[in-house]
Amino acid sequence: MAERNAEEVREQPLTPAQTVGPFYGFALPYEDGPVIVPDGDLRVHGTVRDGTGEPVPDALLEVLQADPHGRVGGLFGRCSTAPAGRFAFTTVRPGATGDGCAPHLAFLVHARGLLLHLHTRMYFPDEPLNAYDPVLAKVPNDRRHTLIAVPDRDGLRFDIRLQGSGETGGDETVFFDV
Fold this sequence. Notes:
This protein is mostly beta strands. It is 6% helix and 29% strand. The chain has one helix spanning 2-11; strands at 42-49, 60-66, 72-80, 86-91, 104-110, 118-123, 150-152, 155-157, 160-161. The strands form two sheets. Strands 1, 4, 7, 8 and 9 form a five-stranded mixed sheet that branches. Strands 3-2-5-6 form a four-stranded antiparallel sheet, with no helix packed on it. The model is unreliable at 14-18 (pLDDT under 50).
Protein backbone atom coordinates (compact mmCIF):
# COMPACT_ATOMS: atom_id res chain seq x y z
CA MET A 1 0.00 0.00 0.00
CA ALA A 2 2.83 2.44 0.82
CA GLU A 3 4.37 1.83 -2.61
CA ARG A 4 1.11 2.70 -4.34
CA ASN A 5 0.77 6.03 -2.47
CA ALA A 6 4.35 7.02 -3.31
CA GLU A 7 3.68 6.20 -6.96
CA GLU A 8 0.51 8.31 -6.99
CA VAL A 9 2.42 11.27 -5.58
CA ARG A 10 5.07 11.02 -8.30
CA GLU A 11 2.44 11.02 -11.04
CA GLN A 12 0.68 14.22 -9.98
CA PRO A 13 1.19 17.11 -12.37
CA LEU A 14 3.24 20.11 -11.36
CA THR A 15 1.42 23.29 -10.40
CA PRO A 16 2.49 26.73 -11.62
CA ALA A 17 5.22 28.40 -9.61
CA GLN A 18 3.23 31.62 -9.53
CA THR A 19 -0.45 31.55 -8.78
CA VAL A 20 -1.08 35.29 -8.61
CA GLY A 21 -3.18 36.71 -11.45
CA PRO A 22 -4.44 38.60 -13.20
CA PHE A 23 -6.39 35.67 -14.52
CA TYR A 24 -9.29 37.74 -15.85
CA GLY A 25 -9.18 40.99 -17.74
CA PHE A 26 -12.59 42.08 -16.48
CA ALA A 27 -12.60 45.79 -15.54
CA LEU A 28 -8.90 46.17 -16.41
CA PRO A 29 -9.28 47.86 -19.79
CA TYR A 30 -9.50 51.60 -19.16
CA GLU A 31 -10.91 53.72 -21.96
CA ASP A 32 -8.32 56.50 -21.70
CA GLY A 33 -5.45 54.11 -20.95
CA PRO A 34 -2.13 55.89 -20.48
CA VAL A 35 -3.51 59.29 -21.48
CA ILE A 36 -4.13 61.06 -18.18
CA VAL A 37 -4.63 64.47 -19.80
CA PRO A 38 -5.51 64.28 -23.52
CA ASP A 39 -3.72 67.50 -24.50
CA GLY A 40 -0.96 67.02 -21.94
CA ASP A 41 2.51 68.33 -22.69
CA LEU A 42 4.39 65.93 -20.41
CA ARG A 43 5.47 62.42 -21.33
CA VAL A 44 6.49 60.16 -18.45
CA HIS A 45 8.04 56.89 -19.54
CA GLY A 46 10.25 54.14 -18.20
CA THR A 47 10.86 50.44 -17.79
CA VAL A 48 9.73 48.05 -15.07
CA ARG A 49 12.51 45.60 -14.13
CA ASP A 50 12.71 42.65 -11.77
CA GLY A 51 15.45 41.93 -9.22
CA THR A 52 17.86 40.62 -11.84
CA GLY A 53 17.39 43.66 -14.05
CA GLU A 54 15.22 41.86 -16.59
CA PRO A 55 12.21 43.73 -18.02
CA VAL A 56 8.78 42.77 -16.68
CA PRO A 57 6.60 42.39 -19.79
CA ASP A 58 3.25 41.99 -18.05
CA ALA A 59 3.07 44.61 -15.30
CA LEU A 60 0.16 47.01 -14.96
CA LEU A 61 0.80 50.58 -13.78
CA GLU A 62 -1.75 53.07 -12.52
CA VAL A 63 -1.06 56.75 -11.96
CA LEU A 64 -2.99 59.17 -9.78
CA GLN A 65 -2.07 62.83 -9.68
CA ALA A 66 -3.16 66.34 -8.77
CA ASP A 67 -4.04 68.88 -11.43
CA PRO A 68 -1.72 71.85 -12.14
CA HIS A 69 -3.34 73.76 -9.25
CA GLY A 70 -2.71 70.96 -6.72
CA ARG A 71 -6.32 69.73 -6.60
CA VAL A 72 -6.42 65.98 -6.07
CA GLY A 73 -8.97 63.74 -7.76
CA GLY A 74 -9.99 62.82 -11.25
CA LEU A 75 -6.61 62.56 -13.00
CA PHE A 76 -5.94 58.87 -13.49
CA GLY A 77 -4.24 56.65 -16.05
CA ARG A 78 -3.56 52.95 -16.51
CA CYS A 79 -0.92 51.34 -18.70
CA SER A 80 0.37 47.82 -19.13
CA THR A 81 4.01 47.28 -19.94
CA ALA A 82 5.16 46.27 -23.41
CA PRO A 83 7.18 43.07 -23.95
CA ALA A 84 10.38 45.02 -23.16
CA GLY A 85 8.88 46.22 -19.85
CA ARG A 86 8.31 49.75 -21.15
CA PHE A 87 5.45 52.09 -20.29
CA ALA A 88 4.49 55.70 -21.07
CA PHE A 89 1.90 58.19 -19.83
CA THR A 90 0.75 61.52 -21.28
CA THR A 91 -0.14 64.13 -18.69
CA VAL A 92 0.61 67.61 -17.31
CA ARG A 93 2.85 68.58 -14.46
CA PRO A 94 0.83 68.52 -11.21
CA GLY A 95 0.89 71.33 -8.68
CA ALA A 96 1.88 71.03 -5.04
CA THR A 97 -0.95 69.64 -2.93
CA GLY A 98 -2.44 71.26 0.15
CA ASP A 99 -0.88 68.69 2.47
CA GLY A 100 2.60 70.12 1.91
CA CYS A 101 3.68 67.53 -0.64
CA ALA A 102 5.82 68.54 -3.59
CA PRO A 103 4.42 67.91 -7.09
CA HIS A 104 4.50 64.17 -7.76
CA LEU A 105 2.76 61.29 -9.51
CA ALA A 106 1.51 58.42 -7.36
CA PHE A 107 2.21 55.04 -9.01
CA LEU A 108 0.53 51.73 -8.21
CA VAL A 109 2.38 48.72 -9.58
CA HIS A 110 0.65 45.40 -10.23
CA ALA A 111 2.88 42.55 -11.38
CA ARG A 112 3.20 38.78 -11.37
CA GLY A 113 4.32 37.36 -8.07
CA LEU A 114 2.95 40.27 -6.06
CA LEU A 115 0.14 39.46 -3.66
CA LEU A 116 -0.64 43.17 -3.26
CA HIS A 117 0.09 46.11 -5.51
CA LEU A 118 3.02 48.37 -4.66
CA HIS A 119 2.83 52.11 -3.97
CA THR A 120 5.54 54.53 -5.02
CA ARG A 121 5.90 58.14 -6.11
CA MET A 122 7.66 59.92 -8.92
CA TYR A 123 9.03 63.33 -8.01
CA PHE A 124 10.22 65.97 -10.45
CA PRO A 125 13.91 66.81 -10.82
CA ASP A 126 15.07 70.27 -9.72
CA GLU A 127 11.82 70.86 -7.81
CA PRO A 128 12.54 73.20 -4.86
CA LEU A 129 9.60 71.79 -2.86
CA ASN A 130 11.22 68.32 -2.83
CA ALA A 131 13.37 69.57 0.07
CA TYR A 132 10.22 70.11 2.18
CA ASP A 133 8.11 67.13 1.11
CA PRO A 134 7.10 65.18 4.26
CA VAL A 135 7.07 61.81 2.47
CA LEU A 136 10.36 62.27 0.64
CA ALA A 137 11.95 63.45 3.90
CA LYS A 138 11.35 59.99 5.41
CA VAL A 139 13.34 58.28 2.64
CA PRO A 140 17.07 57.83 3.35
CA ASN A 141 19.22 60.19 1.27
CA ASP A 142 20.96 57.34 -0.55
CA ARG A 143 17.58 55.97 -1.76
CA ARG A 144 15.81 59.17 -2.84
CA HIS A 145 17.23 59.00 -6.36
CA THR A 146 14.91 56.03 -7.03
CA LEU A 147 11.92 58.38 -6.66
CA ILE A 148 13.12 61.26 -8.83
CA ALA A 149 12.58 61.21 -12.59
CA VAL A 150 15.40 61.92 -15.01
CA PRO A 151 14.88 64.31 -17.94
CA ASP A 152 15.67 62.96 -21.39
CA ARG A 153 14.82 63.78 -24.99
CA ASP A 154 11.45 61.98 -24.71
CA GLY A 155 10.23 63.70 -21.51
CA LEU A 156 10.85 62.33 -18.03
CA ARG A 157 12.21 58.81 -17.49
CA PHE A 158 11.09 57.00 -14.35
CA ASP A 159 12.32 53.42 -14.19
CA ILE A 160 10.83 51.06 -11.61
CA ARG A 161 12.98 48.30 -10.12
CA LEU A 162 10.88 45.77 -8.18
CA GLN A 163 13.74 44.32 -6.18
CA GLY A 164 17.30 45.38 -5.43
CA SER A 165 20.39 43.80 -4.03
CA GLY A 166 22.44 44.27 -0.88
CA GLU A 167 21.39 45.28 2.61
CA THR A 168 20.09 48.69 1.61
CA GLY A 169 18.14 47.46 -1.41
CA GLY A 170 20.57 48.97 -3.89
CA ASP A 171 18.68 50.45 -6.79
CA GLU A 172 15.28 48.97 -5.85
CA THR A 173 12.60 51.62 -6.16
CA VAL A 174 11.37 52.81 -2.78
CA PHE A 175 7.86 51.49 -2.11
CA PHE A 176 5.56 52.72 0.63
CA ASP A 177 3.26 50.93 3.07
CA VAL A 178 -0.08 52.63 2.57
